[in-house]
Specification:
This protein has 387 residues and is α/β, with parallel strands linked by helices. Helix content is 34%, strand content 18%. The protein contains 14 helices and 15 strands. Strand 1 and strand 2 form a beta hairpin.
């Protein structure tokens, strides 16, 4: 189990840039437009997302060419208004190869690979990127997903069971390859992948329009807004984030009222004698950024998606009043036999919240999972002995 968890942690912090050529059945090719061959446009929106994901949206549809130039080196948002207000309808015969949505419109998005035409209102989304939860926030359901449990790829994590009910699990979002035939059998009209699955792009794009994204878990709110821009659902994203922030504020106030303003908290995953500390991401960012609870002295800094790793001695140098421990049964048994762990003040005073590695290792990386944590954290603390 240690090896599996270490691989998962490695996968969480690295993306794959591997190319390979694989053979698959030839399906109808969804028509895409390359640079300089964009559709006739009403409005063109060009967004630059910190250099990670560049998105170009064209509302309306048509068949005539119209050049659009984007300065991809800029990190500022620009809006280009077309002087023409006419869009020609796409013939019915064209709809099968342009990936039209239910309303018959298409949009052009520019992802990390280039430009691709997708349905404006997709009805059968297959998401392999691990962002099916964000899509649900925006009002979409998926027919296929890779938001599976990190410890068991055949099931959903408990915090997404209701959200993803009815979707088919195709793998785990940090896998670089998944079952192409299973994707094809779902008859998707849009496929979303991350850079982790880049080597699948050519095959998937023959099944349906495929958008490849690159998001960062350290800026999860911007990730929601970025995907919202793709589908023109910024209002839904802003409304959900605003509601979450209000809920987080209230949850933090309730914890501080019950346990003190200066009481500090630590959360970490135990794996193979090492401790992966949630500082600026996952469970930790729910505590410190969202709920505004106090950080303990000695907490290691986190500058990227990689979780800081400490030993038993490093763990002992972090002066937390309360600890949220995530571990498998095996790792927990090893902790219980360790003298350094048993000497920690929080352990001796019974102020440790013990949580199973699944689902809590990943729950803090999911917006929906984070929202559920807001409801649970005070109750978790109430289950420990108050100081």
């Amino acid at each position: 189990m240690h090896d599996k968890i270490d691989l998962l942690l490695l996968a969480q912090t690295n993306t794959c840039n591997i190319y390979c050529s694989l053979q698959t059945k030839q399906l109808r090719r969804m028509k895409t437009k390359h640079k300089g061959e964009l559709l006739h446009e009403k409005k063109s929106f060009i967004f630059h997302y910190h250099g990670r994901l560049t998105i170009t949206l064209l509302a309306g549809c048509g068949n005539t060419g119209s050049n659009a130039n984007a300065d991809t080196g800029s990190n500022t948002n620009t809006v280009q208004e077309s002087t023409e207000d006419q869009a020609s309808a796409v013939p019915e015969s064209e709809a099968q190869i342009t990936g039209e949505g239910q309303n018959g419109e298409t949009i052009i998005v520019t992802d990390v690979r280039g430009e691709v035409e997708i349905p404006a209102d997709p009805q059968r989304i297959v998401d392999l990127s691990g962002n099916s939860d964000i899509l649900s926030i925006l009002g979409y359901s998926v027919v296929g997903t890779a938001n599976s449990d990190a410890y068991d790829y055949t099931k959903f994590p408990t915090y997404l069971e209701d959200t993803l009910q009815g979707a088919e699990i195709l793998g785990y979002s940090m896998q670089d390859t998944m079952d192409i035939e299973a994707v094809m059998n779902l008859d998707p009209d849009l496929i979303i992948i991350s850079t982790v699955q880049e080597k699948m792009y050519d095959q998937l794009s023959e099944i349906a329009p495929t958008v490849m994204i690159q998001l960062e878990a350290l800026n999860w709110k911007e990730d929601i807004r970025t995907l919202a821009q793709v589908f023109g659902r910024e209002d839904a994203a802003d409304q959900w984030i605003s509601s979450y922030e209000e809920k987080a504020k209230e949850a933090g106030e309730a914890v501080r009222a019950a346990y003190g303003e200066d009481t500090s908290y630590l959360s970490f995953l135990a794996s193979g004698g090492q401790f992966f500390v949630f500082t600026g991401a996952g469970f930790g960012s729910v505590l410190y950024e969202d709920m505004e609870l106090a950080k303990p002295e000695g907490l290691p800094e986190q500058s990227d998606i990689s979780l800081p790793v400490v030993t038993y001695e490093g763990l002992a140098s972090i002066g937390a009043d309360y600890i949220f421990l995530m571990a498998t049964d095996e790792d927990k048994a090893e902790l219980d036999q360790n003298a350094v762990w048993n000497s920690l003040p929080a352990v001796q005073s019974g102020q440790v919240v013990e949580l199973p590695a699944s689902p809590y290792f990943n729950q803090g990386y999911s917006p929906i999972g984070r929202e559920l944590l807001l409801d649970e954290i005070l109750e978790m603390l109430d289950g420990t002995a108050k100081n």
